[in-house]
Amino acid sequence: MPFEFLSDEKVARYGRFPQEPSVAELEQFFRLDRVALEQVDKRRRPSTRLGWAVQWGTVRMLGVFLTEKPTAVPAGVVRFVGEQLGVDPEEFAEYGRRAQTVYEHAWEIRELLGYRDFADGEAELRRFVAARVWSTTEGPRALFDRAVVHLVKERVLLPGITVLTRLVGEVRRAENARLYGLLAERTPAETAAVLRGLLQVPEDRRVSELERLRTSPVKASGRELDRVAEIGGIGAGRVAVEPVPAVKLASLARYGMASKAPTLRDLEERRQTATLLATVRHLETASIDDALDVLDLLITSNLLAKAERAGKAEQLRTLPKLRSAAQHVASAMEILMSAPQATEDRLVSLAEVWNEIERVVPREKLSAAVEVIASFVPESDDDAAAAWRDSLFILDAIHTVDGGPRPETVVTDTASYSDTVFGLFAICGYQFSPRIADLGDTRLWRTNTRATYGPLDHMSRHTVRLGRTDPSGGPPLRRQSHGLAGSSQAPLLAPHDEVTDPWRRIPSSGI
């Protein structure tokens, strides 16, 4: 049968109503427009009016006129059309009693809607199906459905199902033959001979050369690059395959990868060459991917694992040194944290704190411990990195500004003071001036109005009266001041509790 690729159900549905149309289909195909209503009004009998309107929608939906069986229409269609005309659906049973009337209506509707015979649209349909075969991997069933939709859309009356299935088969075979011929002609004779040789089974092996090459390695053996070189040496990748679509090459490659050597040997010569060419071109890419996967496995399992093991060994070796350094720093911090707070009458100097620390950990050992700990800590933290990014974002925003005057000075909120950032802004012709946020609202306080702070005298205009603080009740007043550069005055600790030995009383520094 010429339509052997169609199922019985599809054959039975061709040019017929398979079931009741949906509401959307009724509205799309059977909703009568103004011209159709004018033609219906020319009929006198209710049955002919209803029959003409049903045929008008039937050809628009199915692409054929039901002239042989005009009443083989779902009841829902008749009811939908009857409601528009105000005609009882029962009248439709009388339509077709005179066969000539049905054919006359079909000719009138054909002329009205501009439908053509299949012979007038056959060449156009062949070009359409040929384009689908060349650019897609659709099978005969899908191509048949595409052809039906195309004919309905272009208002070409459907032919018999045998005619249409034969046309689809002919066009598909012709386009595939053109594809095979083009690839075979582009393949040099030497390359074609090598490709055909892949289907042979060597005497000392049990599988063909093609089967050996298309079998991916299952373990890292070091011979993956040899496989890449062997496949590339066949020369399939050097064959110019344009204008064959990539989807068609991929389809041929899938067939070649899945078929056994005897099946491929039985193919017609041009199809065999085209299939082997596409298969080997696919293997060139696949073999490189396999080699990269093996390389990734080797790097992960050998190099990185070895480096990780070495890093863990070095970490275990340095742990005792880090542990000892941390103990020294912890001892010093314990003395520092236990230092009593200063009061109004009694202050504690930094020298006293150092004396107590050195009784436990000598300064040289503490400095060495700090260096050991610092070697394990990265120099830049996330905050510094974020500040760096903020500065570069500012520079990027300046360069991408759409319009307006060019800024001469950029003021930011302490967005990374690094020399690199200053240099980048200077190279671009800008002055980078970071500022502390809300610096103008900051107040500096002093406890001694007679103390001299040099350039900061005009800033520290506010005074803390220590006599008004209550160290014994409520939350303690915690003050902290840092010594000025070049000043011999020692920094103070905030008052909190009474001071006991071993700390001695020292006079106020006057800050």
Write a structural description.
The chain has 511 residues and is mainly alpha-helical. 55% of the residues lie in helices and 3% in strands. The protein has 19 helices and four strands. The strands form two sheets. Strands 1-2 form a two-stranded parallel ribbon. Strands 3-4 form a two-stranded parallel ribbon. The longest helix is centred in the middle third of the chain and has 69 residues. It is elongated, with a radius of gyration of 46 Å. The N and C termini lie far apart (111 Å). The C terminus is likely disordered.
Number of strands: 4
Mean pLDDT: 80
Helix/strand order, N-terminal first:
HHHHHHHHHHHHHHHHHHEHEEE
Principal-axis shape: elongated
Topology of this protein?
Blueprint: H1 8-13, H2 23-29, H3 34-40, H4 46-62, H5 75-85, H6 99-113, H7 118-135, H8 140-153, H9 161-186, H10 189-197, H11 209-213, H12 224-233, H13 246-258, H14 261-265, H15 269-337, H16 350-360, H17 363-375, H18 382-399, E1 409-413, H19 419-427, E2 431-435, E3 445-446, E4 462-463
Parallel strand pairs: 1-2, 3-4
Helix pairs in contact: 4-5, 4-6, 7-8, 7-9, 8-9, 9-15, 12-15, 13-15, 15-16, 15-17
